[in-house]
Amino acid sequence: MVRMSAEERRESVIRAAVTEFSRGGYHGTSTEAIAKRVGVSQPYLFRLFPGKQAIFLEASRRCCRDVTEVFRRASEGLEGEAATKAMGEAYQALIADDPEKLLMQMQMYVAVAAAEAAGDRAFGEALRAEWMEMYDVANLAMGADVNETTQFLAYGMLVNVLVSMGFQPEHRVWAGFYEEVQPR
């Protein structure tokens, strides 16, 4: 049996954390469940990460970075409406192919709001920075048109909510969407 390096093990913890946190949220997921999914002990998990919050932050960062990279690749060499359409379709494919990414995003928003309500601003600051990177990539692809970027991300968030709620593509709630942003 080939042994994993600490970096490979860390990567497997992040992937497992996305799976577990996307299903159970920050407060509903134990580090024991993450360790079990990876096949390591909790003490080993805490050699890789200082605590549960650090694991959640890395899982959330990974999710944000994956979305940002999808936007970056989809819009490469495109401008304006073509970039917007390509990013929308690429994001739609991402959440259809990997629904854990969508659920992790939703859990991230809830965890940041809960931390803020409890007076922990640092938790949200790190994740807001990742989100702003995603915003900036989309904004630049749209020619730095703030109104277009806002509309694109607003539609995206509505798509997130409707897909998370389980609205099927044929449901009347989708009728007001542009055809290209309706779920697959």
What this model shows, in words?
The chain has 184 residues and is mainly alpha-helical. The chain has 8 helices and no strands. It has helices at 6-28, 31-38, 42-48, 52-75, 80-97, 99-117, 121-141, 146-164. Helix 1 (6-28) runs antiparallel to helix 2 and helix 5 (80-97) crosses helix 6. The radius of gyration is 18 Å and the shape is globular. The mean pLDDT is 90.
Summarize the structure.
This protein is an all-alpha fold and 184 residues long. It contains eight helices and no strands.
**Tally of strands:** 0
From the spread of the alpha carbons, the general shape counts as globular
Detail the poorly predicted runs.
none
Give the N-to-C terminal Cα separation: 41 Å
Rounded to an integer, what's the Rg over CA atoms? 18 Å
How large is the share of residues in beta strands? Answer: under 5%
The DSSP helix count reads: 8
Largest sheet: none
Mean pLDDT: 90
The proportion of residues forming helix, as a percent range, comes to over 70%
Structural class: mainly alpha
The string of secondary-structure elements, in order, is HHHHHHHH
What descriptors fit this protein?
single chain, 8 helices, 76% helix, 184 residues, mainly alpha
Spell out the blueprint of helices and strands.
Elements: H1 6-28, H2 31-38, H3 42-48, H4 52-75, H5 80-97, H6 99-117, H7 121-141, H8 146-164
